[in-house]
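Summary for the steering committee. One of the milestones for this cycle was to obtain a three-dimensional model of the protein with guanosine-5',3'-tetraphosphate bound, which we needed before selecting residues for the alanine scan. The sequence and ligand used are listed below.
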Amino acid sequence: MVEDKLSFIKEVKRRRTFAIISHPDAGKTTLTEKFLLYGGAIRSAGSVKSRRSAKYAVSDWMEIEKQRGISVTSSVLQFEYDDFCINILDTPGHQDFSEDTYRTLMAADSAVMVIDCSKGVEDQTKKLFQVCKMRGIPIFTFINKMDRMGKDPFDLMEDIENVLGIRSCPVNWPIGSGKNFKGVYNRHENQIEVFNDGNHGQSIAETITGDLSDEKFTGLLGETLHEQLKSDIELLDIAGDNFSLEEVLNGNLTPVFFGSALTNFGVEPFLKSFLDITTPPKARASNLGEINPESTNFSGFIFKIQANMNPAHRDRIAFLRICSGKFDKGMVVNHVQKGKKVKLAQPQQFVATDRVIVDSAYPGDIIGIHDPGIFNIGDTLCQDDSKLEYADIPQFAPEHFARISTTNSLKRKQFLKGITQLSEEGAIQVYKRPNIGMEELIIGVVGVLQFEVLEYRLKNEYGVEVSKQLLPYRHIRWIANEGIDTSDLSLTMDSMLVVNKNEQPVLLFQNEWSIRHILERNEGIELKEHS
Ligand code: G4P
């Protein structure tokens, strides 16, 4: 028994569960692939990313992804490295990402933020970063593509601090750039890691350790670069933020690494450092207080539901993040929200290119469980009969809206079934005009691609063709005044009143200005940014 408990704790301690966030094309897929290569989970480069060669990517499940060459769904990958058991939560890289992307971050314990050195902080990174910040999870920055000409590293640091509002502390510092890029100086180890473009980084880079003032560095780098490096490091030492483990773990300071995923340069030192600094799964907030992962009572929450992952089986999978206790195949657990017992018979895990049936899993792991239509996002499952509920997963405000209706009224039932299903998965949010039937709905999404996914899935999975009219609204506000008579509201041409599935009134706006206008015209109205 004691031995069981000890081996359980050992398993928890070696778990690291993180998400990789970036703007499309910054190199997230390439970096993930390099991690998998180091862990021996895949054998050759190109197994994950072969989008343009029409092969399927590991993280691609849906046909639409294959056609368009983008990741529509977020996926989960598990692999081993250096005695760590790593769970990577992938987030779609295309700009048309979805609410799913945000929700995936709820299941992560830390995040790796990939930035293209020639672009700096880009739009999508900003949005994803905000969710990580809200959760206070540690964020590690990998500034990628250092083999190419990029922005000045001090400007990149300033960008991170000004645009994202997080303090940063470079762990290594680039020497030269573009064609003249010589490598990085590791501030912790006092060593220069030499960049060798020729060997495509076949893992180990040459390192030269010594005091920065050492003459041997002049020989290696040339006088100009050596002087530049000395003055850069002096400036960082005086004016930069000091490394503080506590600040990193609280999400207030991001350690920054420079490297190149494509040539492997700096990837393994980054991974090692990341694994070293990050912690195993921590206690999670619930209605019964903080739940320790080492508690023997198995528990977890559902953060994502994906229907019809395999059209041949028309299956629906709920993704469960394990928060405490050990999971064993066939376990009977308590579905807290429904007050019912469920047997987790065919749990799946996602290992590199495969879905496999798991016998056991631990806190930090993600398992896919068969869902006969009983689970909702945010549901808690636990072993004992307590009324344990993990903190709610927030609903993220949609930014795009369209009017959707069926073209064939005989298919109305299937239309509603598909819409309900997709809204339960959290892919879309459904509204309607007050006093108008369900034939015409207003659909809200976080990224516009979701409209295409919606049309595609309604057609392929439910046999329903729809007509779609994009609407110009970009902002949503929930009316907080209880029992308000909305027919008294004075609206403008650039706003629209709709109701959600609970008949709560919601306003859609074209721009910030129209929100202010409505507030001025309707004294006493209270608008909330979240439902
Ligand atoms: P993403 O998942 O964040 O969208 O980015 P992805 O890894 O797909 O990389 C986007 C492009 O950037 C790819 O080139 C990739 O090869 C390149 N790239 C990634 N890391 C580096 C790096 O460290 N240095 C350089 N120079 N390029 C890098 P592509 O031409 O779009 O695709 P492909 O034809 O190479 O497959």
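Key point for the committee: The first strand starts at residue 15 and ends at 22.
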